[in-house]
Amino acid sequence: MSEETTGAASVAAELRRRTQELLAAHPPLETDQLDFLKARFDAGLAWVHYPEGLGGLGAPRALQAVVDAELEAAGAPDNDPRRIGIGLGMAAPTVLGFGTEEQKQRFLRPLWVGEEVWCQLFSEPGAGSDLAALGTRAVREGDDWIVNGQKVWTSSAHVARWAILIARTDPDVPKHAGITYFICDMTDPGVEVRPLRQFTGEAEFNEVFLTNVRIPDAHRLGEIGDGWRVAQTTLMNERVSIGGMRIPREGGMIGPISQTWRERPELRTHDLHQRLLKLWVEAEVARLSGERLRQQLVAGQPGHEGSGMKLSFARLNQEISGLEVELRGEEGLLYDDWTMRRPELVDFTGRDAGYRYLRSKGNSIEGGTSEVLLNIVAERVLGLPAEPRTDKNVAWKDLAR
User: Fold this and answer.
1) What is the mean pLDDT of residues 221-241?
2) Helix (H/G/I), strand (E/B), else coil: 139
3) How many whole angstroms separate alpha carbon 237 and alpha carbon 122?
4) What b/e readout covers 94-106, taking b as 16+ CB neighbours within 10 angstroms?
5) What is the mean pLDDT of residues 70-85?
6) Is residue 4 predicted with pLDDT exceeding 60?
7) H-helix or E-strand containing 212?
């Protein structure tokens, strides 16, 4: 056994010991869920690769699975990751990478235990695919920034306490250079959240209007004007969290259609069988590719491979849900409920086949459109020539809008 292997085994044994100590001191069946999660964070077992004092122990990221397996076997509660996915997958790594020590201490613990929900104030009506063209303005006034503008497609804004926000702080430089990254308190005066009803009937998205919102400079992440670089950390982690989610075999969109195929032999045809087999294999390849991507994360920050995973995720969801509607025939045209709702979490595979079909249409838009991600993969993964761009050296205020 190599020295490296021996070292990993020793760390894994120490993590098991710490986990058993946590379970002994806070029996899951006798401890309030929030109290247990706080104790787990304080024990460094929340995300073991984070630094000590911030929910981790500085251990290899791959060994998180050791802790998770012990806790799952003991029936310990989780932190409902789907409800706080934006905080876990996007805000936390950005705060860790660019936040001050005070910011890390203030935000990471309540984020991980689920006391505070986060949302993302990035996209705007005129800055979606071309996010760097954003026009929301932040103007310095003493120790504060006064923010005015509009954001759109904001998941969970109606339940969020905090938001990660990018705003233009210098209109006299090219668009990528004049952006600064902030943490915005969603309860502050001037923050107005309005629902955006989708064609699923739900309003999981929102538009957010910011009117003279005062953000203290202490809630700035990174340097002034360096917000685009900070945002890249957020965006790469977002695409990994969407496209590289850990799911079991036949998890995700392929699960419901596989179950229907087994339970409803009268719906089967040879053509549908061939198409389902093809998509089942592709879904399994995507699942295993996601596992490989997560293993790569052990060595450092996510790269642009997450864009490829998110592309695959969107295409597969749309093709599988379309086949499911076709398999079900007339039943597939039914829809269970058009009631206007504002859900606290996004469930891509929930409800019935009609919902899955409609909801999957958004997968190729949210988290970066498929067209933009194709450019990213082509240029930054495959090394193909970049598309000609005429606005890279033009001040944002001089761009045509």
Assistant:
1) 88
2) strand
3) 14
4) bbbebbeeebbeb
5) 94
6) no
7) strand 205-216
Nearest alpha carbon to residue 109 among 186, 205, 35: 35
Question: Smallest Cα–Cα separation from 390: which of 378, 399, 377, 381?
Answer: 399
Distance CA 133, CA 390 (A): 13
Query: Residue 2 pLDDT more than 50?
Result: no
pLDDT of residue 393 exceeding 70, the answer is yes
Token output for 37: 């999660």
Q: Tokens representing 97?
A: 């990478």
Owner of token pair 């001191």: 25
Catalytic residue, from 202, 207, 238, 305: name it. 238
Beta bridge partners of 279: none
pLDDT class of 367 with cuts at 50, 70, 90:
confident
**Would you call 3 a catalytic residue per the annotation?**
no
Residue 234 contacts by C-beta under 8 Å, 6 or more apart in sequence?
Answer: 90, 91, 93, 94, 120, 122, 164
Q: Is the pLDDT of residue 56 over 70?
A: yes
- Between these two residues, 341 and 226, which has the higher pLDDT value? 226
Residue corresponding to tokens 């930054």: 380
